[in-house]
Amino acid sequence: MDPVLLARIQFALTIGFHYIFPPLTIGLAWLIVIIQALHLGTGEAIYRTMARFWIRVFALGFAVGVATGIVMEFQFGTNWAAYSRFVGDIFGAPLAAEGLFAFFLESTFLGLLVFGEKKLSPRMHFASGLMVALGSTLSAFFIIVANSWQQTPAGYRIVDGRAELTDIWAAVFNPSTLPRYAHVVSGALITGAFFMMGLSAFYLLRRTHEDFAGRSLRIALVVALAASLGQLGTGHWHAVQVAHTQPAKFAALDGHFETGAYAPMVVAGIPDADEERVRGKVAIPYMLSILVGMDPATEIRGLKDFPKDTWPPLVITFVSFRLMENLGFFFIGLTVLGAGLMLLKRLTGARPVLWAMLFAMPLPILANELGWIAAEVGRQPWIVYGELRTADAISVTVPASQILASILLFSLLYTFLGAVFVILLRMKVLKGPEEPAHEGGEP
């Protein structure tokens, strides 16, 4: 058994399961803020009912996210000791800041949000919701800083085999931090909005809680449409950054082997590392060069420019990236259709579209996972791009048998947590929101 492979599988398992929840809760947090603001502005009881229901759903996702997130940080010290030694001077700071500032801000005000509704004024309750949303979004920033430094390290020097910080601002705002953060936050808004859309569609299909569901659906649809369109901009920004700072990764994402101008964009096919070509290639002429440099004469570096032992695994990198892109275009199509029906006041009766929204509910979670796979697998064989290989970052004292045992243990634990989340969520959904004393208006 290869301990490096097992350690990578364990980390992929733990972070893959954990990453279901942060985008969901970030997106829901901002939707709750919007609902609370509508309650403040209109005074209608239905918005208080809506906020109360979605806060309970948020709290459930937050609890499971916290439980699964703790495990990841311990792995740095157990399975990745050489990595921890190399990056400890830099990597630990944003993780500590996330815990000390963002997490405590979020968790403290979440307590007020969940338990303080009857004791706080509506304005203070709204302020608590806003602090939760800011805390969750700030938490994502510190995590993205840490991970982005691995992708595009900056503001450091190597001393005695360790990376030492020389410029904190260069390290924090390394070349990939801002585009990746914008892309992650917009993805989180899509995730939360599609989740709210899906559950609202469920109620409308059952013809229950229709006022609650109709209003929730409209709010979520507007956010989902804006965030889905925003992903075009943030995705382009991030892709151009990768082309300039991680050219081998960019070539793998796009199945691009030959360096040159007038580069086509491959939209379908399977890259073959042995034959150095894309099988069954379907491509748009010149489009890759145009997207990167706004000029078809822009030169794009191909994989053949780099030693083969620095190529990422091509198939999984390419396919995960293409699937993520296609899901993004699906999100735009569905939300544009929904928005058109909403303007025509036909959305709540368009049952095929409501069914599509219900079944699309988990797809942004899948898109987030695919984006993470493309980003992390595309970085290989480096754990710190250009500086430290993944194979050299492992803990040499942890045998493969112990890593395998922990994988089995975590699999059982996460299966249990996943089942608990689904069961509790199902109970909340079937129970539905509490009906307000006085409903106002039609959705």
Tell me what you see in this structure.
- A two-stranded antiparallel sheet has the order 1-2. A two-stranded antiparallel ribbon has the order 3-4. A two-stranded antiparallel sheet has the order 5-6.
- Helix 3 runs antiparallel to helix 14 (400-431), helix 7 (177-206) packs across helix 12 (351-360) and helix 8 (210-245) crosses helix 9 (247-253).
- The protein has helices at 3-18, 21-42, 45-78, 81-115, 122-151, 168-172, 177-206, 210-245, 247-253, 287-293, 314-343, 351-360, 363-377, 400-431, and strands at 156-159, 162-165, 265-272, 277-284, 382-384, 388-389.
- Helices cover 70% and strands 7% of the residues.
- Mean pLDDT is 87; it is low at 438-443.
- It has 14 helices and 6 strands.
- A hairpin with a 4-residue loop joins strand 3 (265-272) and strand 4.
- It is mainly α and 443 residues long.
- The protein is globular.
State the secondary-structure class: mainly alpha
Beta-strand residue percentage: 5-15%
| Strand element count | 6
Order of H and E elements: HHHHHEEHHHHEEHHHHEEH
Question: End-to-end distance, in Å?
Answer: 59 Å
Question: Would you spell out the secondary-structure blueprint of this structure?
Answer:
Blueprint: H1 3-18, H2 21-42, H3 45-78, H4 81-115, H5 122-151, E1 156-159, E2 162-165, H6 168-172, H7 177-206, H8 210-245, H9 247-253, E3 265-272, E4 277-284, H10 287-293, H11 314-343, H12 351-360, H13 363-377, E5 382-384, E6 388-389, H14 400-431
Antiparallel strand pairs: 1-2, 3-4, 5-6
Helix pairs in contact: 1-3, 1-14, 2-3, 2-5, 2-7, 3-4, 3-14, 4-5, 5-7, 7-8, 7-12, 7-13, 8-9, 8-11, 11-13
